Amino acid sequence: MKRVFQRIFSLGVLSLITLPSLAQIDVSQVMPVDPNVRIGRLSNGLTYYIRRNGLPEKRAELRLVVNAGSVNEDDDQVGLAHFMEHMNFNGTRHFPKNELVNYLQSIGVQFGADLNAYTGFDETVYILPVPTDKPELVEKGLQILEDWAHDATLDPVEIDKERGVVIEEWRISRGADERMLKQTLPVQYKDSRYASRMPIGTRENLESFSVDALKRFYKDWYRPDLEAVIVVGDIDVKEIEARIKQIFGEIAGPENPRKKESFPVPDHAEPLTVVAKDKETALPSVDILYKKEPQAETTIGDYCRYMNRLLFTGMLNNRLREITLSGKPPFVQASSFYTNSLARTKDAFRIYANTSDTGMALSLSALLRENQRVLKFGFTAAEFDMQKKQLQAFYDRIFQEREKEESYKYADEYINHFLLNEPIPGMEWEYDFVKQYLSTAKLQDVNSLAQEWITNRNMVITLNAPEKSGVRIPTEPELKQLIDSISQLSLEAYHDKNLASSLLDASKIKAGRVVSAKTDEDLGTTTWVLSNGATVILKPTHFKNDEIIFRSFSKGGHSTATDADYFSASNAAAIVRQSGVGNFNAVELGNMLKGKNTQLESNSPYISLYSEGVNGNTIPAETETLLQLTYLYFTSPRKDKDAFESFKTRQKQLYTNLAANPQIYFSSEFQKLMTQNHPRAGGLPKPEDFDKINPDRSFQIYKERFANAGDFTFLFVGALDEEKIKPLIEKYIGGLPGTAKKENYRDLGIRPPAAKLEKVINKGADPKSTVNIVFTKQVLYNQNDAFALRSLGDLMNIKLVEKLREEKSGVYGVNAMGSLVKYPSPFSLFSISFPCAPEKADT
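Given the sequence above, the corresponding structure tokens read:
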């Protein structure tokens, strides 16, 4: 359940349960458990969750959850919780050596993409999707989970081979972020074991740990009373339960189990500050962390408080977005959230921002100021009503799709029920409860959270800063002085923005009409040509109950612009997105859409190199809203000087230090190489490049690209009713200006190099390399060849993992992929890339 903005809820299929009014509910009442999931506990302590779910068909999601992670390691076991996760793929009783991965690949389960695992501070989770069309496949899957649970081989030869693989994974994690974490974690987790237990471990211990230390970790923590088995999918619940009891019931519990300790994150009365510096910092940031006691999540009252937390952070994020889009923004972007994942023993309220070299103090001041404003004045009734509508709309959409939920999402819910005791009441109960709660929720209860959260006690301020000459970084004493000064500021209360009643006056639009129609029985599509020349393709589907996906596109893009207009053209759509449409700036437009399940994609409208368009999604009941938005972005882009200045400022801040990151720099230089240093196709822009943008020219180019709807194709896929959508399409798409004129992209001559090239790029302080190998050839485009090349990439991935990872222990992962590029001139591309030690890069 919960974690609304981190994952979708557990969904039930019972008829809607009617709750008594909230005034009649005992808030101390424990949340119910969804009757659609069968939960049991074996005599040895192992917990199991089983649920039948038909999506996807003939598939099941299996999980083994171990309630132990890196924080449970002894001093001689640092990194071994994660290493043990690796070893479960390298030899178990029923699958010696690498036979496990080989078997799963033989039944269509890909290593990495499907079969996976992860290790955290407090848990280890194994992920195994399996086909269910043959009973023996599910049986084998359960056998794999049982092997993982207590029957890993831990062959010393295989352990030594895997050291190299895990060290390569450690190598990947090296860089500015990792070095700054080493500076910040001891402060954020002051005097706590969590500060010294990053799951990846240390190279020193990975190279030298004893086999006995690993076996001791496995024996101590992989035991049935700390484990859960989860099976969700197209299965028979009774049969699976019987097999779980038979297979896992035979696992013996330890005679003298080691006590599982709880590791606190101690409180501190005064704020802590830390300034982490690194020469390779790509994007400076400020972070304010308020550590809190873990919030119980078992009763109805707990759930009410959870809803209040969502309302609080949602309203604060609306304010931060408004500041971001102002003419002189103090940060590149900012956000806040409440989390229970800081540690098992501590929650946290966090507010953070990405900023510039010279703007760290300004950004921190802005965040502290907004916190203080909420603390002093709270949120307004208008903000509260708008956020409640937004939250209700979110639940509405989930509820409408409750019968289309995929199995892996249920599995995620049950993981958190086992580890964190998060409630799983079922969507019907939960939806009805949320609807009632939002109708009676009190603003004063939400505002009161500021008094609980925003305190100097348990506050930690972190700055991640670039280490370079000419940049002055605030010192820790200066940060503490800033904290003290904020409470003395004279602040004004937040002022609500007026909202219009509608996006546009639809009565002024002259509708077009469908002039021709044809159907394709094989594809299940209907194609209309409208009187303005626009092409509309409709594809009704039943994958979702309440979703329509929308795409529109036309050839051209910013390839049609001159070289002199390149920066104005390539940024034109982004500037319009920041500016808004019609009578609405971007903030006002966002507020207008609160409470609706209609949205455009984050990069929409777009103008790419060879095309332009508008993309989004909606629910059938709000199709008109989506079409009105599209109409406005075609006909009424807004020219906003403040929005342009905000965009330019933030882009210059964003790109100031990106090239300091070796991986970003490598990717940029590689792109230059692959496009033969074409000035319009490769490499990172420089901050000063954004001074080349002429906002008037950008606005003009945008209008030119969207001036002729007759040159566009509009595609609708999903829960469509052609008769209902037809008059809306005729009005808002048929009503757009359009002619029969068709346009194409301009071939700028961007091509990969024909001759063999080798280039060594030296960058970065860490002992790691990235190798890219690319083969290209001019060919004719053919869909069958494109499919064959993609398949070859999949095959090469398997073979290269076997050779470079399993046999040589030289890499953590390999990425091989093939494709056919169609535009502007077809060519084949096959690439192989992998990170490794520098001394192994050319061997």
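The two ends are 50 Å apart (CA to CA). Try to locate this feature in the token string yourself.
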